[in-house]
């Protein structure tokens, strides 16, 4: 984060966290924000921050919680506004230009935010991997910016219930996210809805595409293999977005030791800070990512400490309309929308 971005952040949140002094050694806004950013960016414990800033343990824990909540409240409406119909159309243009996937408005995935067991929580947040977590369900655009997020579902939630019970999932299921009207992707395709890309964990909907089943278990027909590759290539954006966030905010490199309210606030703050810093500093951080974002590498994301992938989030049932749309895209990727690299990639598998 540059000095100018930090100063802008101080000006934005300062009035909400400013402490009115009754003594001369009161903690300034800059110190509160610096301590919070240090905690998020370094992954150090609160005790380490306490010693580094010479602030009491009880005080620093309250200040970090307050600052994270203010960051979310302040930046949420600035860098994470739910797109309108015109904005969705712009995102689809960018996605087709960069990733060669038409009518796509983004990619979606979920991650477990691993944390120390909360006091008196029992098995409420105990997940199938044997750890305690909350779930971050997120969608991003072609440039690794979060567009929609749902934060806070308990890690023990049933696989099929996470997506369907989230506000984002309800928006997809009921088709009320203000996506643009259906548009042809070529002259013989007929109108095709705008859609997001998901992996096998998500249900197949008319506005949410997932791969054909059987990948890795049997030899798929060529057209289905091409569709799965092109979908996975575009869906890699959300994996890279999570990777960028975990690389910049290293609090997610290991289980978070904090209370329930603080873990939720930390996750929310990291999401909006990710967007804010990238937008303020012209996609800063992408060039420092310790992986190859745009090359034809494996699509599997490496779990990083407190960020672990979720598995099934929906059922295998789907409508005839959703199947027809997927089949149209499958034919498009093997005909009018074919690219040279897709065949080179499949040959090398």
Number of helices: 11
| Average residue pLDDT | 86
Strand percentage lies at 5-15%
Spatial separation of the terminal alpha carbons: 39 Å
Radius of gyration: 21 Å
What is the β-strand count? 8
Protein structure class: alpha/beta
Form type: elongated
Order of helices and strands: HHHHHEEEHHEEEEHHEHH
The largest β sheet comes out as: 6 strands, mixed
Unreliable stretches: 287-301
Q: Specify the helix fraction band.
A: 40-55%
Top keywords for this entry?
8 strands, two-stranded antiparallel ribbon, elongated, alpha/beta, 349 residues, six-stranded mixed β-sheet
Structure in words:
With about 350 residues, the protein is of the alpha/beta class. About 40% of the residues are buried. It has helices at about 5-15, 30-40, 45-55, 55-80, 85-100, 160-165, 165-175, 220-250, 260-280, 320-335, 340-345, and strands at about 105-115, 130-140, 145-155, 185, 190, 195, 210, 305-310. The strands form two sheets. Strands 1, 2, 3, 6, 7 and 8 form a six-stranded mixed sheet that branches. A two-stranded antiparallel ribbon has the order 4-5. About 45% of the residues lie in helices and about 10% in strands. It is elongated. Helix 4 (about 55-80) crosses helix 9 and helix 8 crosses helix 11 (about 340-345).
